[in-house]
Design brief:
- With 350 residues, this protein is an alpha+beta fold.
- Helix content is 25%, strand content 35%.
- The chain folds into two domains: 2-223, P-loop containing nucleotide triphosphate hydrolases (Rossmann fold, 3-Layer(aba) Sandwich), CATH 3.40.50; 236-344, OB fold (Dihydrolipoamide Acetyltransferase, E2P), CATH 2.40.50.
- The chain is built from nine helices and 20 strands.
- The strands form five sheets. The protein has a six-stranded mixed β-sheet, with helices on both faces. Strands 15-19-16-17-18 form a five-stranded antiparallel β-sheet, with no helix packed on it.
- Strand 9 and strand 10 form a beta hairpin.
- Helix 4 (107-120) crosses helix 5.
Protein backbone atom coordinates (compact mmCIF):
# COMPACT_ATOMS: atom_id res chain seq x y z
CA UNK A 1 0.00 0.00 0.00
CA UNK A 2 1.36 3.43 -0.94
CA UNK A 3 2.33 5.83 1.86
CA UNK A 4 3.47 8.74 -0.28
CA UNK A 5 1.86 9.28 -3.66
CA UNK A 6 2.56 11.76 -6.47
CA UNK A 7 -0.41 12.05 -8.83
CA UNK A 8 0.10 13.86 -12.14
CA UNK A 9 2.69 16.09 -10.45
CA UNK A 10 4.31 18.64 -12.77
CA UNK A 11 6.22 21.91 -12.69
CA UNK A 12 6.60 24.55 -15.40
CA UNK A 13 8.73 27.69 -15.20
CA UNK A 14 7.82 30.45 -17.70
CA UNK A 15 6.55 27.91 -20.20
CA UNK A 16 9.54 25.59 -19.78
CA UNK A 17 8.68 22.12 -18.47
CA UNK A 18 10.94 21.27 -15.51
CA UNK A 19 8.93 18.19 -14.51
CA UNK A 20 6.41 16.59 -16.86
CA UNK A 21 3.29 15.08 -15.26
CA UNK A 22 4.53 12.12 -13.22
CA UNK A 23 2.98 9.44 -11.05
CA UNK A 24 4.87 7.67 -8.30
CA UNK A 25 3.93 5.67 -5.21
CA UNK A 26 6.31 5.06 -2.31
CA UNK A 27 5.60 2.42 0.33
CA UNK A 28 6.04 3.04 4.04
CA UNK A 29 9.66 2.36 5.03
CA UNK A 30 10.88 2.27 1.42
CA UNK A 31 14.13 3.93 0.27
CA UNK A 32 13.67 5.52 -3.17
CA UNK A 33 16.37 7.33 -5.16
CA UNK A 34 15.56 9.96 -7.79
CA UNK A 35 18.46 9.50 -10.20
CA UNK A 36 19.44 11.43 -13.30
CA UNK A 37 21.75 14.04 -14.83
CA UNK A 38 21.73 17.73 -13.94
CA UNK A 39 18.55 19.44 -15.10
CA UNK A 40 16.49 16.25 -15.32
CA UNK A 41 13.91 17.45 -12.77
CA UNK A 42 14.85 15.29 -9.78
CA UNK A 43 15.60 18.17 -7.39
CA UNK A 44 12.48 20.07 -8.48
CA UNK A 45 10.43 16.94 -7.74
CA UNK A 46 11.97 16.70 -4.26
CA UNK A 47 11.32 20.41 -3.66
CA UNK A 48 7.65 19.94 -4.55
CA UNK A 49 7.39 17.08 -2.05
CA UNK A 50 9.11 19.26 0.57
CA UNK A 51 6.81 22.20 -0.21
CA UNK A 52 9.57 24.56 -1.38
CA UNK A 53 8.25 24.56 -4.97
CA UNK A 54 4.56 24.84 -5.82
CA UNK A 55 3.37 22.27 -8.38
CA UNK A 56 1.89 23.59 -11.60
CA UNK A 57 -0.48 20.63 -11.68
CA UNK A 58 -1.08 17.44 -9.74
CA UNK A 59 -1.20 16.50 -6.08
CA UNK A 60 0.89 15.00 -3.28
CA UNK A 61 -0.71 12.56 -0.85
CA UNK A 62 0.92 11.51 2.42
CA UNK A 63 -0.79 8.75 4.36
CA UNK A 64 -3.92 9.40 2.29
CA UNK A 65 -3.97 13.13 3.11
CA UNK A 66 -3.51 15.75 0.40
CA UNK A 67 -0.57 17.95 1.45
CA UNK A 68 -0.12 19.79 -1.87
CA UNK A 69 -1.11 23.15 -0.37
CA UNK A 70 0.31 22.55 3.11
CA UNK A 71 3.19 24.86 4.09
CA UNK A 72 6.66 23.24 4.34
CA UNK A 73 6.86 23.85 8.09
CA UNK A 74 3.54 22.07 8.60
CA UNK A 75 4.41 18.94 6.60
CA UNK A 76 6.71 17.60 9.30
CA UNK A 77 9.22 16.18 6.84
CA UNK A 78 12.91 15.67 7.65
CA UNK A 79 15.25 17.31 5.15
CA UNK A 80 19.02 17.07 4.65
CA UNK A 81 20.71 19.32 2.08
CA UNK A 82 24.07 18.87 0.37
CA UNK A 83 25.47 21.77 2.43
CA UNK A 84 23.97 20.22 5.64
CA UNK A 85 22.83 23.76 6.66
CA UNK A 86 24.01 23.39 10.25
CA UNK A 87 23.90 26.43 12.51
CA UNK A 88 27.57 27.41 13.04
CA UNK A 89 26.90 29.16 16.38
CA UNK A 90 25.20 26.08 17.87
CA UNK A 91 26.82 22.97 19.27
CA UNK A 92 26.14 19.52 17.84
CA UNK A 93 23.53 18.84 20.52
CA UNK A 94 21.87 22.24 20.00
CA UNK A 95 21.69 21.65 16.26
CA UNK A 96 20.02 18.27 16.76
CA UNK A 97 17.61 19.68 19.35
CA UNK A 98 16.60 22.69 17.24
CA UNK A 99 13.78 21.02 15.30
CA UNK A 100 12.42 19.30 18.40
CA UNK A 101 12.34 22.64 20.21
CA UNK A 102 10.40 24.19 17.32
CA UNK A 103 7.85 21.39 17.77
CA UNK A 104 7.31 22.54 21.35
CA UNK A 105 8.68 19.37 22.93
CA UNK A 106 9.34 19.81 26.67
CA UNK A 107 12.93 20.10 27.85
CA UNK A 108 13.28 16.63 29.42
CA UNK A 109 11.93 14.86 26.36
CA UNK A 110 14.04 17.10 24.14
CA UNK A 111 17.25 16.11 25.95
CA UNK A 112 16.27 12.45 25.88
CA UNK A 113 15.53 12.47 22.16
CA UNK A 114 18.65 14.47 21.32
CA UNK A 115 20.82 12.04 23.27
CA UNK A 116 19.16 9.09 21.56
CA UNK A 117 19.78 10.55 18.10
CA UNK A 118 23.43 11.34 18.86
CA UNK A 119 23.92 7.81 20.11
CA UNK A 120 22.29 6.47 16.95
CA UNK A 121 24.75 8.35 14.70
CA UNK A 122 27.68 7.64 17.06
CA UNK A 123 28.35 11.28 17.97
CA UNK A 124 27.53 11.33 21.69
CA UNK A 125 31.13 12.21 22.55
CA UNK A 126 30.96 15.29 20.29
CA UNK A 127 27.72 16.77 21.61
CA UNK A 128 29.50 19.93 22.81
CA UNK A 129 31.50 20.60 19.65
CA UNK A 130 30.67 23.12 16.94
CA UNK A 131 30.22 22.26 13.23
CA UNK A 132 33.58 23.85 12.33
CA UNK A 133 35.30 21.31 14.60
CA UNK A 134 33.83 18.31 12.74
CA UNK A 135 34.83 16.37 9.64
CA UNK A 136 32.56 16.24 6.59
CA UNK A 137 31.23 12.83 7.53
CA UNK A 138 30.52 13.96 11.10
CA UNK A 139 28.66 17.06 9.89
CA UNK A 140 26.55 14.85 7.65
CA UNK A 141 25.65 12.62 10.59
CA UNK A 142 24.65 15.68 12.63
CA UNK A 143 22.38 16.82 9.79
CA UNK A 144 20.81 13.34 9.63
CA UNK A 145 20.31 13.25 13.40
CA UNK A 146 18.64 16.68 13.32
CA UNK A 147 16.31 15.60 10.51
CA UNK A 148 15.41 12.32 12.24
CA UNK A 149 14.98 13.83 15.70
CA UNK A 150 11.62 15.37 14.73
CA UNK A 151 10.41 11.83 13.93
CA UNK A 152 9.38 12.69 10.37
CA UNK A 153 7.02 10.51 8.32
CA UNK A 154 9.36 11.00 5.34
CA UNK A 155 13.08 11.81 5.14
CA UNK A 156 14.16 13.87 2.10
CA UNK A 157 17.84 13.86 1.11
CA UNK A 158 19.15 16.28 -1.53
CA UNK A 159 22.59 15.07 -2.73
CA UNK A 160 23.59 14.54 0.93
CA UNK A 161 27.00 13.06 0.08
CA UNK A 162 27.95 15.41 -2.73
CA UNK A 163 30.52 17.27 -0.61
CA UNK A 164 32.36 14.14 0.56
CA UNK A 165 35.45 12.58 -1.00
CA UNK A 166 35.10 9.22 -2.76
CA UNK A 167 36.30 7.00 0.10
CA UNK A 168 34.21 8.76 2.75
CA UNK A 169 31.19 8.73 0.44
CA UNK A 170 31.37 4.94 0.18
CA UNK A 171 31.62 4.62 3.96
CA UNK A 172 28.69 6.97 4.50
CA UNK A 173 26.53 5.12 1.96
CA UNK A 174 26.81 1.98 4.07
CA UNK A 175 26.14 3.93 7.26
CA UNK A 176 23.10 5.66 5.79
CA UNK A 177 21.58 2.42 4.51
CA UNK A 178 22.14 0.71 7.88
CA UNK A 179 20.60 3.69 9.70
CA UNK A 180 17.57 3.79 7.42
CA UNK A 181 17.00 0.07 7.87
CA UNK A 182 17.24 0.40 11.64
CA UNK A 183 14.78 3.29 11.88
CA UNK A 184 12.52 2.24 9.00
CA UNK A 185 11.76 5.80 7.92
CA UNK A 186 10.40 6.31 4.40
CA UNK A 187 13.23 7.99 2.46
CA UNK A 188 13.52 9.80 -0.86
CA UNK A 189 17.00 10.80 -1.98
CA UNK A 190 18.15 12.84 -4.97
CA UNK A 191 21.46 11.84 -6.54
CA UNK A 192 23.26 11.92 -9.89
CA UNK A 193 25.61 9.12 -8.77
CA UNK A 194 24.60 5.75 -10.26
CA UNK A 195 26.58 3.63 -7.80
CA UNK A 196 25.10 5.58 -4.89
CA UNK A 197 21.56 4.90 -6.13
CA UNK A 198 22.25 1.20 -6.65
CA UNK A 199 23.88 0.89 -3.22
CA UNK A 200 21.13 2.61 -1.26
CA UNK A 201 17.80 2.30 -3.02
CA UNK A 202 15.03 -0.25 -2.76
CA UNK A 203 13.84 1.30 -6.02
CA UNK A 204 15.39 3.77 -8.45
CA UNK A 205 13.37 6.44 -10.26
CA UNK A 206 15.45 7.28 -13.34
CA UNK A 207 14.67 10.75 -14.75
CA UNK A 208 15.69 12.48 -17.97
CA UNK A 209 14.58 15.83 -19.40
CA UNK A 210 11.86 16.23 -16.82
CA UNK A 211 10.36 12.79 -17.36
CA UNK A 212 10.52 9.49 -15.54
CA UNK A 213 12.25 7.00 -17.86
CA UNK A 214 12.05 3.88 -15.68
CA UNK A 215 11.16 2.88 -12.13
CA UNK A 216 12.54 -0.40 -10.84
CA UNK A 217 14.74 -2.17 -8.33
CA UNK A 218 18.45 -1.46 -9.00
CA UNK A 219 19.27 -5.00 -10.17
CA UNK A 220 16.24 -5.19 -12.45
CA UNK A 221 16.90 -1.77 -13.96
CA UNK A 222 20.56 -2.61 -14.58
CA UNK A 223 19.89 -6.04 -16.09
CA UNK A 224 16.70 -5.10 -17.97
CA UNK A 225 16.89 -1.47 -19.08
CA UNK A 226 13.88 -0.26 -21.04
CA UNK A 227 15.77 2.03 -23.43
CA UNK A 228 19.06 3.58 -24.50
CA UNK A 229 19.07 6.15 -21.69
CA UNK A 230 18.52 3.53 -18.99
CA UNK A 231 21.19 1.35 -20.59
CA UNK A 232 23.87 4.01 -20.70
CA UNK A 233 23.15 6.12 -17.61
CA UNK A 234 22.95 3.26 -15.14
CA UNK A 235 26.35 1.72 -15.79
CA UNK A 236 28.28 1.28 -19.05
CA UNK A 237 26.79 -0.39 -22.11
CA UNK A 238 27.65 -1.18 -25.71
CA UNK A 239 24.69 -0.11 -27.85
CA UNK A 240 24.30 -0.95 -31.56
CA UNK A 241 21.56 -0.14 -34.03
CA UNK A 242 19.90 -3.41 -35.00
CA UNK A 243 17.01 -4.78 -37.02
CA UNK A 244 14.85 -7.85 -36.67
CA UNK A 245 12.13 -8.81 -39.13
CA UNK A 246 9.81 -11.00 -37.12
CA UNK A 247 9.65 -11.80 -33.41
CA UNK A 248 11.68 -15.02 -33.67
CA UNK A 249 14.03 -13.91 -36.45
CA UNK A 250 17.76 -13.29 -35.99
CA UNK A 251 18.99 -9.88 -34.87
CA UNK A 252 21.22 -8.20 -37.42
CA UNK A 253 23.84 -5.53 -36.74
CA UNK A 254 25.82 -4.34 -39.77
CA UNK A 255 25.48 -7.69 -41.48
CA UNK A 256 26.35 -9.72 -38.37
CA UNK A 257 23.74 -11.99 -36.78
CA UNK A 258 23.92 -11.61 -33.02
CA UNK A 259 22.34 -13.74 -30.27
CA UNK A 260 19.53 -12.61 -27.98
CA UNK A 261 16.90 -14.42 -25.93
CA UNK A 262 14.41 -11.55 -26.19
CA UNK A 263 11.60 -12.64 -28.53
CA UNK A 264 9.11 -9.88 -27.77
CA UNK A 265 10.47 -7.12 -29.99
CA UNK A 266 11.11 -6.66 -33.68
CA UNK A 267 11.63 -3.86 -36.19
CA UNK A 268 14.27 -1.13 -35.83
CA UNK A 269 15.88 -1.70 -32.46
CA UNK A 270 18.97 -1.14 -30.37
CA UNK A 271 21.04 -4.07 -29.21
CA UNK A 272 22.59 -3.69 -25.75
CA UNK A 273 25.30 -5.71 -24.03
CA UNK A 274 27.16 -4.72 -20.86
CA UNK A 275 31.01 -4.69 -20.86
CA UNK A 276 31.25 -7.22 -18.03
CA UNK A 277 29.11 -9.72 -19.98
CA UNK A 278 31.67 -9.94 -22.81
CA UNK A 279 34.54 -12.44 -22.80
CA UNK A 280 37.57 -13.03 -24.98
CA UNK A 281 37.01 -15.96 -27.36
CA UNK A 282 39.25 -18.20 -29.39
CA UNK A 283 38.89 -19.11 -33.06
CA UNK A 284 35.49 -19.99 -34.44
CA UNK A 285 33.76 -19.36 -31.10
CA UNK A 286 34.06 -15.58 -31.54
CA UNK A 287 30.94 -13.61 -32.46
CA UNK A 288 33.12 -10.78 -33.73
CA UNK A 289 36.86 -10.11 -34.01
CA UNK A 290 38.80 -6.90 -33.61
CA UNK A 291 41.95 -5.15 -32.45
CA UNK A 292 42.57 -3.94 -28.90
CA UNK A 293 42.92 -0.16 -29.23
CA UNK A 294 43.14 0.66 -25.51
CA UNK A 295 43.70 -1.13 -22.20
CA UNK A 296 43.23 0.61 -18.84
CA UNK A 297 44.12 -0.82 -15.42
CA UNK A 298 41.50 0.03 -12.78
CA UNK A 299 42.80 -1.94 -9.81
CA UNK A 300 40.34 -4.78 -9.39
CA UNK A 301 39.63 -5.01 -13.12
CA UNK A 302 40.87 -4.15 -16.61
CA UNK A 303 38.91 -2.07 -19.13
CA UNK A 304 39.51 -2.88 -22.81
CA UNK A 305 38.34 -1.13 -25.95
CA UNK A 306 38.30 -3.24 -29.09
CA UNK A 307 37.78 -1.87 -32.61
CA UNK A 308 35.49 -4.26 -34.52
CA UNK A 309 33.34 -4.25 -37.68
CA UNK A 310 30.41 -3.39 -35.36
CA UNK A 311 32.26 -0.36 -33.98
CA UNK A 312 34.18 0.15 -30.75
CA UNK A 313 33.29 -2.41 -28.07
CA UNK A 314 34.21 -2.03 -24.40
CA UNK A 315 34.64 -5.00 -22.10
CA UNK A 316 35.88 -5.46 -18.55
CA UNK A 317 37.77 -8.34 -16.99
CA UNK A 318 38.59 -9.06 -13.38
CA UNK A 319 42.23 -8.56 -12.46
CA UNK A 320 43.59 -12.07 -11.93
CA UNK A 321 47.21 -10.95 -11.98
CA UNK A 322 47.85 -11.39 -15.72
CA UNK A 323 46.20 -9.20 -18.43
CA UNK A 324 44.14 -11.12 -21.01
CA UNK A 325 45.39 -9.05 -23.96
CA UNK A 326 47.68 -6.17 -24.88
CA UNK A 327 47.09 -3.09 -26.99
CA UNK A 328 47.41 -3.99 -30.66
CA UNK A 329 46.40 -7.65 -30.18
CA UNK A 330 43.80 -9.19 -32.47
CA UNK A 331 41.12 -10.82 -30.33
CA UNK A 332 37.77 -12.54 -30.60
CA UNK A 333 34.79 -11.53 -28.49
CA UNK A 334 31.83 -13.54 -27.30
CA UNK A 335 28.75 -13.15 -25.10
CA UNK A 336 25.67 -15.18 -24.26
CA UNK A 337 22.25 -14.56 -25.80
CA UNK A 338 20.83 -14.26 -22.26
CA UNK A 339 23.11 -11.29 -21.58
CA UNK A 340 21.96 -9.17 -24.52
CA UNK A 341 18.93 -6.87 -24.50
CA UNK A 342 16.78 -5.33 -27.23
CA UNK A 343 15.25 -1.88 -26.67
CA UNK A 344 13.27 0.45 -28.89
CA UNK A 345 15.31 2.69 -31.16
CA UNK A 346 14.51 6.36 -30.65
CA UNK A 347 15.00 8.67 -33.61
CA UNK A 348 17.84 11.12 -33.15
CA UNK A 349 19.97 8.85 -30.96
CA UNK A 350 23.46 8.10 -32.11
Amino acid sequence: MSFLELKGLSKTYNGVVAVAPCNLTVAKGEFVCLLGPSGCGKTTTLQMVAGFAKPTNGSILLGGKDITQVRPSQRGLGIVFQSYALFPHMTVAENVAFGIEMQGVVADERRKRTGSMLELVRLSAMAGRYPRELSGGQRQRVALARALAIQPPVLLLDEPMGALDAKLREEMQIELRTLQHRIGVTTIMVTHDQSEAMTLADRVVLMNKGRIEQVDRPFEMYERPNGRFSSTFLGKANVFQATRRGRNAAVEVLGHQLPVDDDVADGDLEYVVRPEKITFARGEHALVKGRVSARVFLGNHWLYQVETPLGAIQLTHANTGVPEAAEGDTVGLNWLAANARLVARIEGTE
